[in-house]
Amino acid sequence: MIENQIPRLLPLGDAAWTVEFGEAIDPALHARVMGFARALERAALPAVIESVPTFRSCTVHFDPLAENADALGARLLEIAASAPAAALAGRRWRIPVLFGGAAGPDLAALAQHAGLSEAAVVARLTAAPFRVYMLGFMPGFPYMGGLPAELAMPRLATPRLSVPARSLAVTGELCAIYPVASPGGWRLLGRTPLELFDPADAAAPALFAPGDEVMWQAIDAAEFARLEREPIDRARFLVAPEAPWPA
């Protein structure tokens, strides 16, 4: 195996291989990962139990008693080398967010770091489409790319012991929403009244899926409180694929 070859095969214990396609957070790279995942699914290799695609790699869990690990690894590299890129065409969402104040305690610090006003930061956030690359860390936690470069900022030196559920947060080049209250060190810029994870919805418990596009819509405290009180139909916040993003 050549160490620096791309795609690259890395062992993960004795029952999984990770196939790496690069090191960047990039739509083209993610499309290669998803193309491999689709090709692997079509190949229906008997020993494969599950595949887990991420930004830049795909981990393949397998039954080590069903096939020789090295032989399977070689087959995975063959599939990775020949699989066409497959960018996911997901749903498009317009998600309401209450920015700043108690809902977004790090907005002022990020604005100062970027040399912008808080209003200018919100304007950039609400003008940029974000792409969901993967779900991880906790159920329904969406890792999203698309953060304007001028808003990139390191995570907190000391993570908070508890981040409120539904907090919109950024770190580095990434954006996310915490589905439930949990510790976390990302910069908190606002909150959405929408639940991101509903375990009662067996078909689609997570609001977002890889390939989805998301734009934020700034709302005030009164609108946030109203939406938080009312039962919400998720479909209300979908944007038709052929429609322009609302201003």
Number of domains: 2
What is the β-strand count? 14
End-to-end Cα distance: 51 Å
Portion of residues in helices? 10-25%
CATH architecture of the largest domain: Beta Barrel
Q: Radius of gyration, rounded?
A: 20 Å
Major beta sheet summary: 8 strands, mixed
What is the CATH superfamily of the largest domain?
Answer: Cyclophilin-like
Shape label: elongated
- CATH topology of the largest domain, anyone? Cyclophilin
Main CATH class of the largest domain: Mainly Beta
How confident overall, as mean pLDDT? 91
Q: Given the structure, what is the number of helices?
A: 5
What can you tell me about this protein's structure?
By secondary structure, this protein is an alpha+beta fold. It has 2 domains: about 10-80, Gyrase A, domain 2 (2-Layer Sandwich); about 90-240, Cyclophilin (Beta Barrel). The protein is built from 5 helices and 14 strands. The protein has helices at about 25-45, 70-80, 105-115, 120-125, 220-230; strands at about 10, 15-20, 50-55, 55-60, 90-100, 130-135, 140-145, 160-165, 165-170, 175, 180-185, 185-190, 215-220, 240. The strands form 3 sheets. Strands 5, 6, 7, 9, 10, 12, 13 and 14 form an 8-stranded mixed β-sheet that branches. It has a 4-stranded antiparallel β-sheet with strand order 1-2-4-3, with helices on one face. The chain has a two-stranded antiparallel ribbon with strand order 8-11. A hairpin with a 3-residue loop joins strand 3 (about 50-55) and strand 4 (about 55-60). Helix 1 crosses helix 2. It is elongated, with a radius of gyration of 20 Å. The model has no long low-confidence stretch (mean pLDDT about 90).
